[in-house]
Amino acid sequence: MIHLFINALAATAGGGVTYIRNLIPQLSRRSGVQVTVLVNDSLRSDLQPAANISYLNDEFSGGVTRFWKEQFRLPALIRNSGADVLLSAGNFALRNSPIPQILLSRNSLYTSADFYRDVLARRHYTIWLDTKLKSYLARQSVMWADCTVAPSHTFAAELKAWTGREVIPIHHGFDRDIFFSEATRLPEDAERALQSSADALRLLFVSHYNYYRNFETLLRALPHIRQQLAPWPIKLFLTCEFRSRDNPGSYRAEAAAALLQGMGIRDNVIELGNIPYAALHRLYRSCDVYVTPAYTETFAHPLVEAMACGVPVVASDLPVHREICGEAALYFDRFSEEALAQRVLDLAHSQRLRERLSACGSRRSAEFSWQRHTDSLLHLANSLLSAAKIMAA
């Protein structure tokens, strides 16, 4: 029997939420495993009860404030739970953990020169300073943890170069049964938008608005695509809205919103807003091409989801994107709207290419498994626990 304590307070959006939503069901099916999960109220409602899973609810405020509160309040919670191994799932470790600790590090902003240049160019100095401070704490966290896990070989190598410490790569997974099982329908507005664009080339990008997903390069590519495709219409579907208040974090979406008007592409872009996770597979399967222009990533769950749905992928040419997609995607220079447009046009004009990428993506997505991820994580946790018992003897 092993008892895990999972600090999931930082799972509030994007990949962090996806990770916890998929990890907990896997752990709930494991015999000989007891789990205590510290989770925020908004995510707790998405997690199903299980005999071996206990939930602690808390709402520490975000960012650096939460980090310091965790340092003082978490040790007592861990001791009271009787847990054997701590899994810190939000990039920051507990400095003096009372039990062996695994750190899950999955934020590439701390090591991304592109991101720091971007926020300075936007004169968003608050984010620059906040990220610098968090990057110091994230680097220290790798030193404090007994071991650090990264979701890809690419990011593991980045972290090792950054900290000088060994980092273990364990790919995040994909669970077809969970992703495709729900009968949830798309919101009515989304259904209507998809139906009204049935004759268009439909591009999809799944992300809330932030700077590092590089929305602006994608938007600037649309006039190039539209001109070359005419009279075939084009629609870009987004799972966000270009209003700062409607997106997590403090990213300013107004510049992206201004591009829609300034470039005359307002009618080509459909801002769906947040789509329930259980209905996402319906959205993917309603679109023709999945596009991501992100300039930094650590794994990118939507790439695996798109491939599993048989949607051809066009991705910025990052090592991590090539690691995840392999030959199932076309790649472009991350800041070149012309290159992005050309890759989309290549797919639009070749049914054979679309079919090849679709088949390749379906096969590639099968290589990612939350079961294998959980097996690897539990093996690591048991190794740490055994080593701790030997040290204590």
Widest sheet: strand ordering: 3-2-1-4-5-6-7
Q: If you compute it from the alpha carbons, what radius of gyration comes out, rounded to the nearest whole angstrom?
A: 21 Å
CATH class of the largest domain: Alpha Beta
Calculate the terminal CA-CA distance, rounded to whole Å. 19 Å
Q: What is the CATH topology assignment of the largest domain?
A: Rossmann fold
CATH architectural arrangement of the largest domain: 3-Layer(aba) Sandwich
The count of domains is: 2
Order of helices and strands: EHEHEHEEHHEHEHHEHEHEHEHEHEHHH
Annotation, overall tally of beta strands? 13
List the total number of helices: 16
The unreliable regions are none
The helix content is: 40-55%
Instruction: List the quaternary state of the chains.
Output: single chain
Biggest beta-sheet profile:
7 strands, parallel
Strand content: 5-15%
CATH superfamily annotation of the largest domain = Glycogen Phosphorylase B
Determine the structural class based on helices, strands and strand pairing. alpha/beta
Give the rounded overall mean pLDDT: 92
Shape: globular
Structural key phrases:
393 residues, alpha/beta, Rossmann fold, 16 helices, 48% helix, globular
Structure description:
The protein has 393 residues and is of the alpha/beta class. It has 2 domains: 2-173 and 369-392, Glycogen Phosphorylase B (Rossmann fold, 3-Layer(aba) Sandwich); 176-365, Glycogen Phosphorylase B (Rossmann fold, 3-Layer(aba) Sandwich), CATH 3.40.50. Helices cover 48% and strands 15% of the residues. It contains 16 helices and 13 strands. The protein has helices spanning 14-28, 41-44, 63-81, 113-121, 125-144, 153-163, 176-181, 188-196, 215-229, 254-262, 280-285, 301-308, 319-325, 337-348, 351-365, 370-392; strands spanning 2-7, 33-39, 53-57, 85-88, 101-104, 147-150, 168-169, 201-205, 234-238, 269-271, 289-292, 313-316, 329-332. The strands form 2 sheets. A 7-stranded parallel β-sheet has the order 3-2-1-4-5-6-7. The chain has a 6-stranded parallel β-sheet with strand order 10-9-8-11-12-13, with helices on both faces. Helix 13 (319-325) links the parallel strand 12 (313-316) and strand 13. The mean pLDDT is 92.
